[in-house]
Amino acid sequence: MGLDANILQQAIQYFIINRCSFSGSTLSGGFSLEASNKRFTQSSIDRIEALDFTNIEIYNEDFYDFIVNTASASTSLLFLDPPYYLENKSNKLYGNNGDLHSGFNHLALFDLLKSRTDCKNWVLTYNNCEYIRDLYKDFKIIDVKWSYGMNATKASAEVIIVANKTI
Fold first, then answer.
1. Positions of E strands within the chain
2. What is the pLDDT of residues 71-82, one digit of tens each?
3. Distance in angstroms (rounded) separating the CA atoms of residues 42 and 32
4. β-strand partners of 124
């Protein structure tokens, strides 16, 4: 299996785990038969097939290298979805018992976004916590209330959107 086939296989496996897990958060969410029956459907597969990625580029790189070397075009919109800022370092949110995430330099990302004058069109999503709100206080912060999972009546305020003021 070549590199491209391996990446495709990983994407398929991730999609199946995401659709079948309790919270959609990969292996940390636990398997849910109800979620599997309601979310892993032919229509969810069809929606992916219908997507038009003609003008979309997706990268999986270290944020610093990507922003410095690739994301300087003034016509591009940079969407960043860093790991949650977790005050409790023993939190095992990501992966299987925390094996997919062992640290992220949130301050370095902030400093880089703040210092770049050639990368002004950016949006990022973060968990709603005092540390992140204080860090990005000079930027546009949007509170969102989204319903997660199958219980559409229960809105969550755990996510905020942060954007450069030019957006």
1. 78-80, 122-127, 140-143, 146-147, 155-156, 159-163
2. 666 677 888 888
3. 18
4. 80, 162
pTM: 0.66
What is residue 21's DSSP assignment?
A: B
AA letter at 89? K
Instruction: Determine the Cα–Cα distance for residues 96 and 26; give it in Å rounded to an integer.
Output: 8
In order of their start, the domains of the chain are: 1-51 (no CATH), 56-167 (3.40.50.150)
The answer to whether 83 touches 102, Cβ cutoff 8 Å, is no
In DSSP terms, 21 is beta-bridged to 31
108 contacts 102 by C-beta, under 8 angstroms: no
Residue 42 parent element (H or E): helix 42-50
H or E segment and range at residue 5: helix 3-20
- The more confident residue out of 58 and 140 is 140
Residue with tokens 């977790």: 86
Convert the pLDDT of each residue in 120-147 to its tens digit: 788 998 888 999 999 999 998 988 876 5
pLDDT of 17 above 50: yes
